[in-house]
Specification:
Shape: globular
Order of helices and strands: HHHHEHHEEHH
Radius of gyration: 18 Å
Number of strands: 3
Distance between the termini: 36 Å
Strand content: 5-15%
Strand order of the largest sheet: 1-3-2
Structural class: mainly alpha
Helix content: 55-70%
Amino acid sequence: MSAIHEAGADAGAAQDDPACTESLPSAARGGPVSHAISRVARLHRAAAAKLLRGAGIYPGQELVMMLLWDRGALRQSDLIKALELDPSTVTKMLQRLEQAGHVRRRPDPRDGRAVLVEAAEGNRGLHDEVAHAWTGLEEHTLAGLSPAERTQLAALLARVETNLCTGTADCAVPARD
């Protein structure tokens, strides 16, 4: 069974999961959408984990690789800012990716105190596996939604993201198409 089909099969199992079927907790009654977002984020990450397992990486690591593939070598500090994660989390991700041969770290020739991180040469296969996993995740996540509903959902989520970033000094909201 493929990872995509496994994720789909697990959707049925998820319906039996108390976390998927419980009524809204009393403390969350004032925030049903926030509670729904929390549940969806947890399930989305679990589905991503299953799909990325075949590529030998964990959720979040693909985001590091995407940045490096698209932007080239980055200072580790800039990568941390772009990912908006705790430095220790990114450092651990980079250690694991480096051990797996996916990234390379080296001193920045312009500033010996800084570290440059770049995608290792010859990991085009990983790029293709990640792209395939994300395509599968998108289709699994949005199954049953029309193209118009998918567009509307993306627009609504972009607005929610902007709302959440408002007042956060270093929250970088990406430009929308």
